[in-house]
Amino acid sequence: MNSGFYNESPACHCEESSDNEGKNKQHYRKSIESKRGRPRGSKVSGTKKEVIDLRSLLTRCAQAMADNNTATANEFLKQIRQYYSPYGNATERLAHCFANALEARVAGTGSALYTALTSRRIPAAESLKAYQTYVAACPFKRMSNIFANKSIGRLTREATRIHINDFGILCGFQWPCLIQGISLRLGGSPLLRITGIDFTLPGFRPADGVEQTGRHLMNYCKRFNVPFECNAIAKKWDTIREKNSGGM
To answer: What is the rounded CA–CA span in Å between residue 242 and residue 214?
Structure first.
């Protein structure tokens, strides 16, 4: 249980435990150390690998596109293609993604590419695995979630209703910690209302993703006896008005 939710310390037990995190760091450290040095029997190559600043090339390519200089943008893309790789190091993989996006922008196929990517429905289990890997490797998202949830808990300590408008809710992974925390309030949990806002999905069920997130959160609230209401909205964010969320 998240017994420290209303304390000043930002403890949150909905994420992976510190023990598991320590084991992961230790395993990661060992894997790095095992790769140090030169394998036995290998020889140092006499050729030097050319060092290319892919970040600079990508930035200059994007600037050329912003200036409608298609010829220059294509020249930069030719250079970038020689060095990016979907299976290389972090910089090469990043360059691969951005170069594909820039190439689609030059060709005018960006909308078609986005539609093709979003047409694939990613199961919630896969999204959860990716999210767990992300927060285990990078603490910033975890800490921002903990800070936000603790702030909401502190500012709504006496409230009987809590209404949250979440733009870009995706799978709503931030809110189980909050739900578990407010369930511990003395005198009972307040009514929690979450307006989940996300972009539409292609197909005949454009709001299916955000509605599925609402159902998952509903089941979690039932588990901790938290009264819950969900308002799922799938539309462009700049078209959202106060009446859509039932009151900001």
So the answer is: 19
Q: State how far the Cα of 243 lies from the Cα of 221, in Å rounded to an integer.
A: 25
CA distance 5 to 135: 20
Give tens-digit pLDDT for 57-84.
889 988 988 888 888 988 988 889 888 8
Q: Are 84 and 98 in contact (CB under 8 A)?
A: no
Q: How far is CA 199 from each of CA 15, 59, 111, 236, 240, rounded to the nearest angstrom?
A: 27, 28, 14, 6, 11
183 contacts 224 by C-beta, under 8 angstroms = yes
End-to-end CA distance of the chain: 30
The secondary structure of residue 146, as a DSSP letter, is H
The span from the CA of 120 to the CA of 202, in Å, is: 9
The tokens for 16 are 């992976």
Separation of alpha carbons 91 and 106, rounded Å: 22
Q: Evaluate whether 201 touches 209 at the Cβ level (below 8 Å).
A: yes
Query: Whose CA is closest to 214, among 170, 150, 183?
Result: 170
Cα separation values, 68 from 14, 57, 63, 65, 133, Å: 48, 16, 9, 5, 39
Tokens of 143: 């800490």
What stretch of H or E contains 60? helix 54-66
Q: Order of strands, edge to edge, in the sheet holding 191-198?
A: 161-167, 191-198, 228-234
pLDDT at 134: 85
The SS3 of residue 8 is coil
